[in-house]
Records
---
Amino acid sequence: MTTSTTRSGATASTKGAPGGRPPAPRRLPPRAAWIVLGVVLAAALLLGLSTGLNIGLLAVGALVLNVVGLYVWARAVEGRRAATDRLVTAVVTSAFVVAMVPLASLLWTVITLGTNRFDLQFFTYSMLGVVGEGGGAYHAITGTLIVTGLAALISVPIGVLAAVYLVEYGRGRLARAITFLVDVMTGIPSIVAGLFAVALFTLAFGPGTRLGIMGAVALSVLMIPVVVRSVEEMLKIVPNELREASYALGVSKWRTIVRVVLRTSVAGIATGITLAIARVIGETAPLLITLGATTGLNLNPFDGRMASLPVFSYYSYTQPGTPPQPGLDRAWAAALVLMLIVMVLSLVARLISRLFSPKIR
Amino acid sequence: MSTSLEPQTPTPATAAASSAKAQPIGDRVFAGLATGAGTLILLVLAGVAAFLLAEGVPALVAPAGDLPGGNGFIAFAWPLLFGTLLAATIALVVATPFAVAVALFISHYAPRRIAQGLGYVMDLLAAIPSLVYGLWGVTVLAPATVPSAQWLADNLGFIPLFAGPASTTGRTMLVAGLVLAVMILPIISAVSREVFLQTPRLHEEAALALGATRWEMIKMAVLPFGRSGIISGAMLGLGRALGETIAVALIISGLGIVTFNIIGNQNSLTIAANIALDFPESSGLAVNALIASGLVLFVVTFLVNAFARYIINRRSEFSGAN
């Protein structure tokens, strides 16, 4: 990042000396960026305290002034190229900070509002007969676990086998078509997956059907491509020597795949599956139109409507009842639970891959 | 990146397949299962299109007066498609520059020690359910934008986007677009970062050795190399923004009209949000109309995603870095 290594000791000796080193470029003091930032922030703080301007406006102004100030200073001392470099550094860093603001605000909001009802009752009561305060999301949590579990039960075998096909068997047009379509399927809107399940079950059981299994089918459509993709990646990095060694011992192909290839990559596969579950467990839209909603516990995915955590949160927010506050609190608590589940699953996935993956290199 | 692995590996598959006659029963069963699973995926995708078509066609052929709105399917679906494209465009325009900056920051500017941690954080953020983004948008962001929207309407009202009068609740298309932008930012930046990190080290060092500043190095080595990554990341983000349902449904409770005014009280609605809002209370032909609109959404996102994948695949074949 420092473009010149002849920073010090060159100025005095080189005046007019033929063959001597060129004069060292003048540089801003180290930490110049921090100095400018400090000055600008202090100015903004003073202005804010004295005039009471909007804090958001001040922050934006300070950010712009910081970037411009640094550029002007560097331009005057260091020249155009170095100043542009500093300008871009400041812009990129500011953009990063600005991009983090909504995300930080989101985490803060969910945690502060979600903890209002993050209590034992929330996890042990359903909403059966509850009006106003109290009640909980027990029925929704079990519903989410059942539906997501079923979805995993459908997706994991199909996904893993399809990945095995792509890596170990697939050659030619079919494999290329599957690879391409799996990629495209990753981008299917979740609501379309839900509509697919609705259309499928409408044709089979007539209109207005709402079943737990419908939600599981919809989630599987979203989950399968994620599983295929991650398992495929994992199978590809299994060293070929392992397969060849197994074949050389006369082991049949399917035993090689099951006993050697899958066994070697089991940690990676577990990671991929966990991430896939984390991806679908928070889906609201497909469950909204396939599961419907209930207030009571329903443990049978083949019979009637079922509650789920995201849909519970959605309806608690949009139809909180009167007075609205208990409903809103439940909505935020459910959102917090959902986010915690996703985060924990993601962390568990990372942990699995870090602790159990074979050391390839 | 990973696709390049495949052709190089000597293929045990072909070697084993050549002795097909001697295959034991277990092999044939397992191969059949694997092929079946692969084929099933094709069938599912075909099934998504087929079942949507089967349930959507009644709305397409029904007399115009029977559909919601009473003016035929085009009149029903066009405003929704317009709203979908508008929201996704806002999201893309806002998110892409920030996402590229975030990706560059993590890949080339942040201290090495915290860069990996930041990468993890971005991945975690990409996994946050859209419902949570929606709740945040309607509770925090929407009220916060009211003064700005008022200012835009007062001072920039000559631009059709800010024609006003500004909404007093803040539940506008602009907020929906911004929430979508926040949602797709981690996705775009993850894809871009991935590609930036693959820039050949020698290109970067050559640029620096010739005296380039860091920005000149990025301009000459990283960005040209990563351009297709940015484009495909943006396309994937666009696909997600087009199909996002619940965040939009929470923010806009619109009428499904065509308007470029993104800060007013009356907003366009998106296809996906409209389905989520109307489906639970619909029956009969209205359901068919919603499913048909879902088919439109499916086709649009399919095209966008296929285009993104085409760019990614083309790059991995010709980039020379592999």
---
Amino acid sequence: MTDGVRAPCTTLTPTTQACSAGSYASFASPSPDHTPDSSPVPHQHSGLPRLGEVLIGQGLITAGQLEEALCLQAKWGSRLGDIVLASGWVKSLDFYSALACHLGLDFVNLMEQPVKDFLLEKEQYGDYAQYLYLPWRRKDGILWIATADPTCPELVARWGSKPDVRFVVTPKFDILWELQRVGGQTLSRQATYHLARFDPERCARVVVTPNQKRGFLLIFLTTVLSFVLFPVASAIWLNAFLNFFLLLSFVFRTLLCWMSCGELICPTVSDEEVAALRDPDLPVYSILVPMYREPKVIPILAAALRRMDYPRSKLDIKFVLEEDDQETIQAAKDLALDATFEIIRVPRSQPKTKPKACNYAFRLARGKYLTIYDAEDKPDPDQLKKAIVAFEKLGEKTACIQARLNYFNAEENWLTRMFTLEYSLWFDMFLPALDRLGVPIPLGGTSNHFDMAKLKEVGGWDPFNVTEDADLGLRFAAMGYRVGVVNSVTYEEANSKLGNWLRQRSRWIKGYIQTWLVNMRHPVKLLQQVGVGGFASFQLFIGGAIVSGLAYPVLVIPFICWLFTRTAMLHPFFPPEVLFVSTLNLALGNSLLIYLSMLAVAQRKNHALLPHALTIPGYWLLQSVAAYKAFWQLIHRPFYWEKTTHGISKFTRAEVARALSAVR
Amino acid sequence: MASASSRVRRSPVPFRRSARSGAARRLAALASLAVALLIFDWTWGQGRDSSQRVVAILAAVTLSVLWWWHLELASLPRGWSAALALLISGQLLLSILSVGATSIRFSFGALGCGVFVYAMLWIFGTHDRQPGLWPVASAALLLSIGFIAKPAILLACVVASILMFVGERNRFGGMRDFALLLFTPLILFLLSVSLVAVLWAGTPQRAIQSLLAVYQGPPGWSVASRFALLIGESGNLCLIVAVLATRLMEGKTGSPDLACLFLLLSVGIVCVAPGMPAPPTPMDLSVTACAGAGSLVALEPPGSFLGRTVVFAGACAAVGIRLIG
């Protein structure tokens, strides 16, 4: 072997300790007719020490720790090595070195002996990440494969019978690091342009298609012309249209809330169903945590993830960080988390958006299911299990399960209270009812749990859409998949500063406009794909959010002007009938939405917020400011991702302090 | 084995028969409903305006079919559903039409009262079965459109709602939050309507006058004539007595029955009390009784043959008194 490669150790004396479940390779037994010399498959004969013995022999773990690991192995059904790594007792490098000993293979440190770039095939990057291997070197006609899991059945099936292939053991982090070093740019290009190539009609890379441009121009010119020729009639028609649309939107939302209050919406998953799950049957679950310049809040999620009621050895947690964000990378490293946590560095490229980072990272994920959390999220501990039960209950066509979101700093100030009222309404009332009606659900930004295969099938997130989550929910619906809602909550940090809130909200509304534009490129096709109910719900829900944001000041300001001045200037444009209808609609619509917000917080038993719901019309005015900003940005900087700063709440500081003590 | 296979062989036949007979019974029920409505039109329509007859027959069809469907959902057998739907909807419609003999506006007012009372009692009934946020929210939203009924009926329903839900105030975070949940839509809607009315009418006084004018009954009714009318409307009282007796007999009485009695009593008192602005008329009381009876029947249809027969007899008596009167 070349220098830098440690030969397998054979000097350990097997102990008498019962270690029957201590084999790393519990499911891949080599064929007996393969001799160690001619096969890359690791040796599993009785002459070699068991992994637990090796780890104790090398002083990496104690006998007590081994016993604990074996208990966990019996409970979780994971391999001993995964449990030891997830427990954080052993450094990754030491563990894989011991594993090489156990399997009678050589160990290689890829940081010292990097892979030969030309050996890696671009088409295989997904497989490399999934099965944790890389073609390392080719020498004397022998291909050396560096792997963190030499007993992986897929790896054995592919390479095991080839006489000119040998395995060496290496840490999984080194594999991911090398894969990103060699294939980072390719993966980044795939993350950015895959959807644009695979399904350009559903990608927001082109903001407005030529046909849409012609259509909008025609509508604009017709409107201007009609206002010039028939100003009063045009004002009446425009007013009537806006009022009618908003009235429909209010009624639809009321219907959704009314459904959610009653027996019509049952909890998706009960505690008994969660308790009935067997840990050994649980699959590997990937968790992506995309972050940018958020070093302070990482401990919150790290602590929350450690509290998760899920076998740690089956978690594949990835902090997805931008390459140039050294501060956050360092903060993640400083936490010295166990091997369950990985750091993925996204190469610098445009657009620098969260969906692009997610697209990049999910190609490196190994789970059957995948979810996304923000750095400051605190998911309910049983959320992953509930999502798995929900996937099983809702059937094969379910591609995604959305958990409910809410805020842990609701009581901080008026803005956070309003934000909490809004989120309670959205996630506790609207989404479960949409789910019940079987119409497309716009996903929330985090805590959406995906079936990995289906996520790959639809091409991942749209990196050019700044509310990629809402877009993805509709894309799933258009492709015949279902999005469900689960009765589990993730608590986040509500924006407590106005500027920060405006940045976030304008991005969301810009994304809604992008989503609406993308889906309305072919309205008839959309109608066929999602049905009449889905189409109407899309218009009233997504379209309603855009129109109400933009139309609110148009309807309110003239009314207030007229109320205080009784100016005759507006009389021609607001004949009594129009004024009557629009005023009534404005007053009743506002009243209705105030009450729906109250119902949402009452449902959550957050009664302290009930009186504050009366002030929510002021919040809608702020939303209108954000809507106009979003509209302006869509024209000038359509793909610009306005960053929301997290960790500015005083509640968050307390949360971070608590989390740090838990993590350390 | 033998019995299992024989079951397998036999099972499709009754199924097909049942499906066929179900469809046939449905068609027969609908046909009898249509024939009955035509007879109703022929008997009631003598000497009336043809446009009124068209509106009446359309309203009767809509009401009967909707209520028939509601009764079927409540698992009442199809034949009974059709019979009760025909009789009680017909009776409600006759009451409304007799109110509207002077003006179509009064018909709509009476219809508003009927729908409002029906829905309110139905919500109280669902609260009995499943307490929680849904009944309170539904009652609150319904109260907010209480302007479709007369102020006295709205007020009676507000009081009934408080009595009905106040026991659960702690579930909603105390008295203040409970009041907010129950009355916010009503208060906001009243404020909105008042604002629009003031803007429309110019001054608050004119706004109040115009709002109350909406609820005015036929002019020139003295207290004595109201009493006389009240006796004339006794058909619906027969109906409600039959329904309440059946529920009592079957042990199904609960808070909706008390609420129904409370509504009838309060509306009855206000109806004959002098000096009330926009008082409910005896016709409104009659409509309230009919809608209340219908709601109680739909909430939990009579389970026994005797119960159904008593309700059916009450409905026949109500229609008979109306037609004879």
